[in-house]
Please model this.
Amino acid sequence: MVNRMEKTALIDELLQGQRGTGVQYAMEILLKMGELYGVRRFLPVQRAHIDAAAYTTIWDAGREFIEFLVDNNARVAVPTTINPISRDRCNWRAHGISEAFALKSERLETAYLRLGVIPTWTCAPYQCMNVPAFGEVVSWSESNAVNFVNSVLGARAERLPDLLDVCCAVTGLVPEYGLYLQENRAGDILFDLENFPEDSFQDSVMFALLGYLVGEIAINRVPVIRGLPGKANRDQLKALSAAAASGGATALFHIIGVTPEAHTLEEAFQGRTEYPRIILHPDDLLRMQRRLNTAEQKQVDMVLLGCPHLSFTELQMVAETLGRQHVHENTQLWLQTSHTIYEMARIAGIIDILEQAGALVIRDSCLMEMEYSDRWRGKHFVTDSGKVAQYAPAINGARITMASLPDCIRAAVAGRLPEGGTT
Amino acid sequence: MKTIRNFRLILPGEIDAEALVSQKPLSFWGGVDMASGDIIDTHHDLFGKNLQGKILCIPYDRGSCSGSGVLIEMVRRGTAPAGILCIEAEPVLALGPLIAEKMYGKGMALRTIAESDYAALQDACRIRFTPDAVLVLERS
Model:
């Protein structure tokens, strides 16, 4: 597959080092990747999101890479938001993080700040600060966020690997491949939902289970979902995005009548008529839930919400569900969000309610990105997140129960799973 | 011994190593411990195996974008596999070793083969990447 690559005057300028050797280095890497993947041209972008902010995702090698760029005068070329870091900068000591680890995280944070990123420190930049428009080509990373902006907003994003996202942000260019190309955005496989009651998709956990299952079957193909009862809000679609990118490698999905490139089946498949069709029944989601539920104990050690980061509305829902109840003394309730949303929730009086109830609100970080330790090994996590169900058993050694938000809160208050099981 | 001549070379490297074969996708982030090279994804059939110096055969990678960050650190530390063989090598798998080569002069081989050839790998115990083929030695 030999394609002639279109090289613009800008690319030549960057390669010759006219914007510094850091940007030159980034452009060289982009070009090499472009050659490997038969990319024909690079597209300019006006916004970017970087994934690799946590020390536990890129370690010292990644930090050395960012520092090399910064020390050689590279800066982000377009407004660039960034993912959660490995600690809550305001409260990391309370989360069991060591001094030595905090320093490692701080060094990476500093490198990124020098690179000029907007310190949003969130995996859901689309719920504050960075909301791409329909059809807009963006430089994007973080699997849930790529899936969300592609599928829910109809922007053009690819799952840029960590550090390639940085190369794109400092050059303002993305290689045109994969989902940047219209023909690759067509559906590949149809999922028909059958026999689901009208009120079955009320809670995010249902969307997470559906997402995980669809992702697992579709792997890296584009799934099209038909027959979703009712509409879906953005928090629910966020849950589906994250789970589908964790159960498989979904970076774009279509839901007929819900997502913007899928008004009809024909539109979602771009006119294609031949594709595999899978029928899903409520039992399939139940089986999925049983497979992800690895906990045998009833006692609950941790209720983990906010993967991806909680929206303002979700924090409101948690506060309303909690009311005047208190989290059980043997159980922790962690709520993960960004400092931006935290601050708005503080102004609205929500943080007070949550903290008085004994919840811990984590800013700018997430348990799975914090210092690795045996603290949570064998512990029982209750969550509504498919991404937590996939990764926390490996990263934290946790055992999982997937539950709806009301059941998560019940478990946090009672310190054990609700009688009669969770939904 | 099977000889697969139809392959695509993504990252160079002539290697000969023990094969670890799975039909399930794997994410390096949240799936592999970069310090030891152990596979820690409890949902994966290779859970508990060590990747260092091996040839890892997975059909695809899994969702996370952070695989490249973990792989660059593994190449730097010497815990990375010697090579990866898959059906589709998405950029998440190629970028880490590519940057590690540029920064530390150490890389990792990466090749892809057709789905039908991949399906026939299940009994592989040792694999060799030669300039013109992927040689598969099977369990007797």
Summary: Chain A is about 40% helix and 10% strand.
